[in-house]
Write a structure and sequence with these properties.
The structure is a single chain. The chain has nine helices and four strands; from the N terminus they run αααββααααββαα. By secondary structure, the chain is of the alpha+beta class. The protein has one domain: Outer membrane efflux proteins (OEP), CATH 1.20.1600. It has a four-stranded antiparallel β-sheet with strand order 1-2-3-4, with no helix packed on it. Helix 8 packs antiparallel against helix 9. The two termini are about 40 Å apart. Keywords: Coiled coil, Lipoprotein, Membrane, Palmitate, Transmembrane, Transmembrane beta strand.
C-alpha cells in the first residue's frame, strides 16, 4: 500500500513567475474589461449576429470542439489501464489428426474455451502518470478551444470594423471624385474662355483619375472583406449587413486592464501552455517507471477436450493464477535515453510556457499603448479636418474673388480629403485596439477560468 501510494517522477508545481503590480501603460483602475462578455463590449446588433453565427457555424471552432472530444475518448482509454484486462479465447477444430487428446489441456487439436485475466499492479506509478498526462492533454485541448473562440470573436469584430472603415473611405472617395469632376468641368469652361491653361485642366483630370482609382480599390477591398467575414461565419461568400457606422460604434469610457496576475489565470494560451508543461512532466514519470519491472496479476480458467461432448466435464477444466514479472534487460539503456528525452521535452514546455507569458504581457502593453495614442491621434485629426475645411472655404472665396489661382484650392482640397481618410483610420485604430486589448487580456472568461455564458441564440453549449 505504501509503495503504490507513490509515483515515480517529479510532481507538478506551477513555476514562479514574477509579475508587476500593474501594467506599465495602465491609466485606469478597476475591474478588468476582460470580465465583460463580448456582447456587452460590442453593441452593434449586426456585428453581434455575425459573431453569433460564427460561434455556431465556424469550421475551425467545430474542429477544435471535435478535437476536445477526441482527447476525452483518449483519456477514457488511458483510465481503462486501472482495471483488469479480461479476454476470452476459444477453439473448435474441424478435424483432429492425432495425439494431444489429454483433457484439461488446451491445444489446437482440442475444443476449448478460456477466460484470461491480466492486471498490472501500478507499483511505480506508470499508469497514474499516464493518466495525469492524458488529463493534462485534454485540459490543454480545451484551452485551445477557448482560444479559438476568443480569436474568432476578435477576428469577426476586427474584420467588421475594417469593413466599416472601407465603407466610410468609399464615401469620402466618391465625394472627392464628384468634387474633382466639378473642378474638371469648371477648368474646361475656363480653358475655352481663355481664363486658364491646359496645365490646370490636366492637373484636375489627374486628380479625378486618382479618385476614380481609389473608388475602385475600395470597392475591391469591401468585396474581399465581406468574403472574409462570410467564411468566418461559416457560410459561402455573401453581402454583409451593416449596423452602426464607424463613427457610431461605442466603446467603454474607461478601459481598465486589471491586474497582471489575473492574466495568468485567464488567457487560454497561457493555461494551454501550462497544461502542456504538466503533461510533459508527468511523462517523465512514465518514462522512469518504464525502466522498472512490471508486476502483473495473471490468471486463466477454461475447459478443454478432444471431444465436444465432453468439453464441460469436470476433468476437462484447467486454470492457473499467479504473478507475472517483466522487466527491461538489454534495452535498459534505450529506456534511459527515453527518460532523458522526456526530461528535455519538459524543459522545452517550460520555456514555451514562460515565452507565452512574456508574449501575453507584450500584447497587453501594445494594446494599451495603441488605445492611448489612437485616441490622441483621433482628436488631432479632428482638429486638422476642421482647420482644412475652413481653409478650403477661404481658398474658394479667394479664388472666386480673383485674389489667388485655383492651385490653392486644389492643394487644400487634396489635403482635406487625405485628412478625412486619416481621421477614419484613426477611429478604426481605436476600435480595433480595444478589441485587441480584450483579446490580449483573455476576455470572455471569468476570473476563475469558467466560461461566460453565451447568448441563447448562439446555440453553443458551455460543454462544447
Amino acid at each position: 500500500m505504501l509503495i503504490t501510494s507513490c509515483a515515480m517522477g517529479p510532481d507538478y508545481s506551477r513555476p514562479q513567475i514574477d509579475t508587476t503590480e500593474k501594467f506599465r501603460l495602465s491609466q485606469t483602475e478597476g475591474r478588468s474589461i476582460a470580465n465583460l462578455p463580448w456582447w456587452e463590449l460590442l453593441r452593434d446588433e449586426k456585428l453581434q449576429l455575425l459573431i453569433d453565427q460564427a460561434l455556431t457555424e465556424n469550421k475551425d471552432l467545430k474542429q477544435a470542439a471535435a478535437s476536445v472530444e477526441e482527447l476525452q475518448a483518449r483519456l477514457g482509454i488511458t483510465q481503462m489501464d486501472f482495471i483488469p484486462n479480461i479476454t476470452i479465447d476459444g477453439n473448435a477444430p474441424i478435424e483432429t489428426l492425432g495425439g494431444f487428446s489429454r483433457k484439461g489441456f488446451p491445444t489446437p487439436y482440442n475444443y476449448f474455451g478460456q477466460t484470461i485475466l491480466n492486471w498490472e499492479l501500478d507499483i511505480w506509478g506508470r499508469i497514474r502518470r499516464s493518466n495525469e498526462a492524458a488529463r493534462a492533454d485534454l485540459l490543454a485541448r480545451e484551452e485551445n478551444r477557448r482560444a479559438v473562440v476568443l480569436t474568432l470573436v476578435s477576428s469577426v469584430a476586427q474584420s467588421y470594423f475594417d469593413l466599416l472603415q472601407f465603407d466610410t473611405q468609399l464615401k469620402i472617395a466618391h465625394h472627392a471624385l464628384t468634387s474633382w469632376e466639378e473642378s474638371v468641368a469648371i477648368s474646361s469652361a475656363q480653358l475655352e474662355g481663355g481664363l486658364t491653361t491646359r496645365l490646370d485642366l490636366d492637373q484636375f483630370e489627374a486628380e479625378r483619375a486618382a479618385a476614380a482609382a481609389q473608388v475602385a480599390e475600395l470597392e475591391r477591398q469591401i468585396a474581399q472583406k465581406e468574403n472574409e467575414l462570410s467564411v468566418l461565419a461559416g457560410r459561402t461568400p455573401a453581402p454583409v449587413a451593416r449596423g452602426y457606422s464607424l463613427s457610431g460604434q461605442s466603446t467603454p469610457p474607461d478601459i481598465p486592464p486589471g491586474l497582471p496576475s489575473e492574466l495568468l489565470q485567464r488567457r487560454p494560451d497561457i493555461l494551454q501552455a501550462e497544461q502542456t508543461l504538466k503533461a510533459a512532466i508527468a511523462r517523465i514519470g512514465v518514462a522512469k517507471a518504464t525502466r522498472f519491472p512490471r508486476i502483473t496479476l495473471t490468471g486463466f480458467f477454461g475447459f478443454s477436450s478432444p471431444a465436444l461432448a465432453s468439453l464441460l466435464d469436470s476433468d476437462s477444466k484447467f486454470g492457473a493464477a499467479g504473478f507475472g514479472l517483466a522487466g527491461p534487460l538489454l534495452n535498459a539503456q534505450t529506456l534511459g535515453y527515453e527518460q532523458r528525452a522526456a526530461e528535455a521535452q519538459a524543459k522545452q514546455a517550460l520555456a514555451q510556457y514562460e515565452q507565452t507569458i512574456l508574449v501575453a504581457f507584450k500584447e497587453v502593453e501594445d494594446a494599451l499603448a495603441a488605445i492611448r495614442t489612437a485616441n490622441d491621434q483621433y482628436k488631432a485629426k479632428q482638429k486638422q479636418v476642421e482647420a482644412l475645411s475652413s481653409a478650403l472655404q477661404i481658398a474658394n472665396l479667394r479664388y472666386q474673388g480673383g485674389i489667388t489661382s485655383y492651385v490653392d484650392v486644389l492643394l487644400t482640397k487634396r489635403k482635406l480629403f487625405d485628412a478625412e481618410s486619416a481621421l477614419v483610420i484613426a477611429r478604426h485604430l481605436h476600435l480595433v485596439s480595444v478589441v485587441q486589448l480584450y483579446k490580449a487580456l483573455g476576455g470572455g472568461w471569468l476570473a476563475d477560468g469558467t466560461d461566460v455564458p453565451l447568448p441563447i441564440s448562439t446555440g453553443l453549449l458551455r460543454n462544447n
